[in-house]
Amino acid sequence: xxxxxxxxxxxxxxxxxxxxxxxxxxxxxxxxxxxxxxxxxxxxxxxxxxxxxxxxxxxxxxxxxxxxxxxxxxxxxxxxxxxxxxxxxxxxxxxxxxxxxxxxxxxxxxxxxxxxxxxxxxxxxxxxxxx
Length: 131
Fold this sequence. Notes:
mainly alpha
């Protein structure tokens, strides 16, 4: 009986390692990371060429269009098209910051409401794009 338990324990741990190996890297997540306008210069160029439609937040925060000049051949790079991966990133980051600021300053603070409004705009865009 002791041998059965050890063999079943071994197979379950083996199953978990196989599962981790197969699902460890999420496909499609690197797309926005590669084409996002991260630097101030990249964001300024996007704002100058494409306008406010490429940003959900105030100033140059929460960009949702790909960086100009290409990003290693990423689809949509160099155009002013709204990237759904950028919208998803903006939504999750706005929700995260709304939660953080609400915890620190109270849920009725202006900062928490600002991030909640950005998250709502991103969610509306995602619904419109059918995501």
